[in-house]
C-alpha cells in the first residue's frame, strides 16, 4: 500500500518534501491502526480460548467421579433393601445391625450430597421419561393417571445430569366399559 515516492534529495522542492513527509505520516497512521486492530483481534481470540479451556476444565472436574458414583449406586440399593427388611422385623437381634446400617446410609447420603448427587425417588409425581423408567403399570382410580405410584429402584442425578433413571410403577385409570 506504500505509494511509489521519490526519495528526498536536493532536487526536490520544499513542497514536494512536505508532501512526501505527509504521505509517510499517513502510511504510518494506517499501519498503526492495522497493528492495533490485529492486536485487538488476537486478544479477543485469546479470551475465547481461555473461556473455552476454563469451561472444559470445569466440566472435567464436575464429571470426573461420575463412573465411581455409578458403580457405588448398587451398594446403596442393597443397603437400603436390607435396612427396609430389618425395619419390618424389629427383633432385638436386628436392632444393633439396623442402627449400624442406618449410620452407614447416613454417611453415604452425606457423601452424595457433598458431591451434588441427587436421588430420584418421589412418588405421586408425574411420570417423566427423562428421569423415570416405567417397569410396570398399575390400575388405580384413586390417583391421576400417569403418576409414579411406587419407586422400585431410586434414580440419581449428578449436577443435573442423569446417572441412572428411577425404576417406577406408573398409575393408569381403569376404563369402565359399562
TrEMBL record:
Record SUPFAM superfamilies: Coiled-coil domain of nucleotide exchange factor GrpE, Head domain of nucleotide exchange factor GrpE
Keywords of this entry: Chaperone, Cytoplasm, Mitochondrion, Stress response
Matches recorded under InterPro entries: GrpE, GrpE_CC, GrpE_head
Chief location category: cytoplasm
Single GO biological process annotation from the record: protein folding
Record GO cellular component, one term: mitochondrial matrix
Subcellular location: Cytoplasm; Mitochondrion matrix
GO terms, molecular function: adenyl-nucleotide exchange factor activity; protein homodimerization activity; protein-folding chaperone binding; unfolded protein binding
Protein family according to the UniProt entry: Belongs to the GrpE family.
Subunit structure: Homodimer.
Reported function: Essential component of the PAM complex, a complex required for the translocation of transit peptide-containing proteins from the inner membrane into the mitochondrial matrix in an ATP-dependent manner.
Entry protein name: GrpE protein homolog
Amino acid at each position: 500500500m506504500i505509494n511509489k515516492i521519490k526519495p528526498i534529495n536536493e532536487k526536490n522542492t520544499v513542497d514536494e518534501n512536505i508532501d512526501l513527509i505527509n504521505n509517510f505520516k499517513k502510511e504510518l497512521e494506517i499501519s498503526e491502526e492495522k497493528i492495533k486492530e490485529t492486536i485487538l483481534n488476537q486478544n479477543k481470540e485469546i479470551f475465547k480460548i481461555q473461556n473455552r479451556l476454563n469451561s472444559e476444565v470445569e466440566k472435567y472436574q464436575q464429571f470426573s467421579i461420575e463412573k465411581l458414583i455409578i458403580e457405588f449406586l448398587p451398594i446403596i440399593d442393597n443397603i437400603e433393601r436390607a435396612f427396609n427388611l430389618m425395619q419390618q422385623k424389629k427383633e432385638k437381634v436386628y436392632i444393633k445391625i439396623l442402627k449400624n446400617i442406618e449410620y452407614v446410609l447416613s454417611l453415604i447420603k452425606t457423601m452424595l450430597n457433598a458431591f451434588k448427587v441427587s436421588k430420584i425417588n418421589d412418588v405421586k409425581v408425574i411420570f417423566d421419561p427423562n428421569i423415570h423408567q416405567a417397569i410396570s403399570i398399575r390400575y388405580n382410580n384413586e390417583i391421576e393417571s400417569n403418576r409414579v405410584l411406587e419407586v422400585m429402584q431410586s434414580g440419581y442425578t449428578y449436577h443435573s445430569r442423569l446417572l441412572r433413571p428411577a425404576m417406577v410403577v406408573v398409575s393408569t385409570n381403569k376404563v369402565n366399559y359399562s
